[in-house]
Amino acid sequence: MTILPLTEGLFVVDSVKRFVPFISGMPRIPGTTLLAIRPFLIRMRNDCVLLDTGLGTASNGMPAILGLLEEAGIRPEDVTRVILSHLHKDHTGGLGMWDDGHFHPLFPRAKHYLQRREWLYAQAQTGNPSYHEPTLLALASLPNRVWLDDDTGEIADGITYAVSGGHTPFHQTIRLEEDGEVIFYGADEIPMAVYLDQHSAYRNDFDGKKARDNRREWKEQAEGWTFLFYHDRRLPLKTLP
């Protein structure tokens, strides 16, 4: 498998979930967090899998995620599966473009996988700045959208999911396995490498204790696993011995 980190950039995030691009030297405002936005493209033998889609910013008139893929020689139509860990706007913003109120998906040939229960929960969070409500509605209406209804399951050969439920009620993790190699995407339950060693319960999680316990369990199992870090400012991935 080949891992392509698609780093959209560094952003400063405040308590009402405003994402402001970080410029080197800019003063840090108390109460804000500096983090990366980084979807991942995984090339497998028979699939080209996109794990989450970023914030949806644009560069030179092109969605940032498409520009990053183009730099790697990958066309939008090459992506066969888009798998969403959860539905916060910094993970779903790159699903498509809006033009005069119309939604145009960026990956029209790919199947889009999401937890139905996560969507129902997100849809009920009216006014919550963590979500972009129009994108939620557009996502549900996509003809190539695939609802996941179980706590665990197989998406395709070598691709499985499991509801972890720590960061959001139905947040899910993704595991990809091929030729003995294991890639584990814990999304926002292991957003940064330091989370593997700091066994803390964080207040920004729906269930911080569950997320903490999940991390302990995954690390105990993770012989030779490669972990992907969506929000780590410096380290996209790490393979444990």
TrEMBL record:
Pfam families: Lactamase_B. GO terms for molecular function: hydrolase activity; metal ion binding. InterPro entries: MBL_superfamily_lactonases, Metallo-B-lactamas, RibonucZ/Hydroxyglut_hydro. Keywords: Hydrolase, Metal-binding, Zinc. It comes from the Bacteria. Residues 36-225 form the Metallo-beta-lactamase domain. Belongs to the metallo-beta-lactamase superfamily. This is Glyoxylase, beta-lactamase superfamily II. It comes from Siphonobacter aquaeclarae.
